[in-house]
């Protein structure tokens, strides 16, 4: 994390509290330490994060990189004054993009912009990021916290991150491996994850519900349901690729299941997915019913209960389901790969 210099009266009068930034850095260090990997190398200056890559361990390594944010879900966290989960969303959005090609996430950096540095709040944000990195097995090797008075209100913040991973060139997963007759394994999402929150916020505002209101169909307060963190699949996907034969993954984010699954298909093949193989979590019907959102719009915006999909040969279905069950990942055989034009087609109705 970036170190701050001693504050000056003029800078403090302009709204930047560098002393608070120093306290935030001190408070986040214990969280960052939990993500340490043996390849990390200390940079005496503290300006960069260093990571030793032993290329002798690889035949023909490819570096993979991804960057993302959490979108307007951050506004829900701010309205609920709960900041320890949104970092998990950030990590999930980044590392689960990396793992789609089979890359092992190695390290991440983060960037937090805020109207005012409140050390405890920044520490909570970084604690969530660190927990996500721990779950993914990657190191949090650096970051930056920027105070933007006059641009953002004191309680506003946004966060983004970038990650780097590595994969052997001959182990690269993707459309080039997918064959007719393969099966689609769906992995359950934890809920909305971190997409579609502009629509979610509109539905909440128009419903007149408070975020601390208990919603019977959700079984919890509305804000708690909306802040359910994104599931981090990276370690599970890597275990699956190492333990069974996997041809491709698809991270189900903005655009929904059909659009993202289609990205992992070659031009001459379709994925046919049966909606009857699962029931989306209640939060999706809450948004659809309270906001009068059509099914087509729901499926084009949200993951609808599937956060990650794997395309595997038919004889790998049962081993894949067994391995995922042992890792605590709810998964099921959701469809198949057929001849077509490179589309993902959703058929039937949800159970």
UniProtKB/TrEMBL annotation:
This is Phosphoribosylformylglycinamidine cyclo-ligase. It catalyses: 2-formamido-N(1)-(5-O-phospho-beta-D-ribosyl)acetamidine + ATP = 5-amino-1-(5-phospho-beta-D-ribosyl)imidazole + ADP + phosphate + H(+). Transmembrane segments: none annotated. One of its GO terms (molecular function) is phosphoribosylamine-glycine ligase activity. It comes from Streptomonospora litoralis. It is found in: Cytoplasm. InterPro entries: PurM-like_C_dom, PurM-like_C_sf, PurM-like_N, PurM-like_N_sf, PurM_cligase. SUPFAM superfamilies: PurM C-terminal domain-like (SSF56042), PurM N-terminal domain-like (SSF55326). Its EC number is 6.3.3.1. Pathway: Purine metabolism; IMP biosynthesis via de novo pathway; 5-amino-1-(5-phospho-D-ribosyl)imidazole from N(2)-formyl-N(1)-(5-phospho-D-ribosyl)glycinamide: step 2/2.
């Amino acid at each position: 994390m970036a170190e701050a210099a001693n504050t000056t009266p003029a800078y403090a009068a302009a709204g930047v509290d560098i002393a608070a930034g120093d306290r935030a850095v001190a408070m986040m260090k214990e969280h960052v330490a939990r993500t340490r990997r043996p390849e990390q190398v200390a940079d005496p200056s503290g300006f960069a994060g260093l990571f030793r890559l032993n290329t002798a361990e690889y035949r023909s390594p490819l570096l993979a990189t991804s960057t993302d944010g959490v979108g307007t879900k951050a506004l829900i966290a701010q309205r609920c004054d709960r900041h320890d989960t949104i970092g998990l969303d950030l990590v999930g959005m980044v590392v689960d993009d990396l793992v789609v090609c089979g890359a092992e996430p190695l390290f991440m950096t983060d960037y937090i912009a805020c109207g005012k540095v409140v050390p405890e709040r920044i520490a909570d944000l970084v604690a969530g990021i660190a927990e996500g990195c721990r779950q993914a097995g990657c190191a949090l090797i650096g970051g930056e916290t920027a105070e933007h008075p006059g641009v953002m209100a004191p309680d506003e913040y946004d966060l983004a991150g970038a990650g780097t991973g590595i994969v052997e060139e001959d182990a690269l997963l993707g459309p080039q491996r997918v064959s007719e007759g393969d099966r689609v394994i769906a992995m359950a999402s934890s809920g909305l994850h971190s997409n579609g929150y502009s629509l979610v916020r509109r539905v909440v505002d128009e419903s007149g519900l408070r975020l601390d209101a208990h919603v019977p169909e959700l079984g919890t307060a509305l804000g708690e349901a909306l802040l359910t963190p994104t599931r981090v699949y990276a370690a599970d996907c890597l275990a699956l690729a190492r333990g069974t034969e996997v041809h491709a993954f698809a991270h189900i984010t903005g655009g929904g299941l059909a659009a993202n699954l289609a990205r992992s298909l070659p031009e001459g093949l379709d994925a046919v997915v049966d909606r009857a193989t699962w029931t989306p979590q209640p939060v999706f019907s809450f948004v659809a019913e309270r906001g009068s959102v059509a099914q087509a719009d729901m499926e084009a915006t949200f993951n609808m209960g599937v956060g990650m999909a794997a395309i595997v040969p038919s004889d790998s279905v049962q081993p894949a389901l067994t391995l995922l069950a042992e890792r605590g990942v709810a998964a099921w055989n959701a469809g198949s790969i057929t001849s077509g034009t490179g589309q993902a087609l959703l058929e039937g109705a949800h159970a």
